[in-house]
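Figure 2 data, in text form.
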Amino acid sequence: MDLQGFLEHLNSGKPVKGGSEVHLFMHHVSQEALRITSEINGRYHTPDELRALFSQLIGTPVDETFGLFPPFYTDCGKNIHIGTHVFINMGCKFQDQGGIFIADGALIGHNVVLATLNHAMSPDDRGTMIPKPIHIERNVWIGSNATVLPGVTIGDGAIIAAGAVVTKDVPENTIVGGVPAKIIRSIDEEETQ
């Protein structure tokens, strides 16, 4: 298996059986991610150096407008897709095997968790993982300590309140909060200008 085949399997939404070729390759990819995140987190780097390291981590260049405050953690990295003017604050954890797509202008607060894998419900098959992508659309703001679960899309301009657990799609220009997250209110047109 190669990286392309691995990502194709994950992005198809097919389960990953424990001990399978895909699962073993996942562990191989995680070793590179651990090495690069250790470098990111281990000492001071200039913003340009951080962009270079993050680009190496995800396997594609990030825009010069990308910002990251370490530490940052991921156990894959190769299925993270970043737009322009994206900022990721300290302590974030991205489990990106299922795909994390972050559009232009997104702000990710301290200690945000983005999780794209679930385990099978059956106790006899619990080692099987089911990948589902997370889509964070344009100009989304995710508050500190929020968790976004597999398969969620957060619409343009939405705000996720600090500490929220997002289990289902969030409509554009709404504020959600709580556990599980529920719509608090819409963002008025005057607030979006």
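Caption note: The mean pLDDT is 95.
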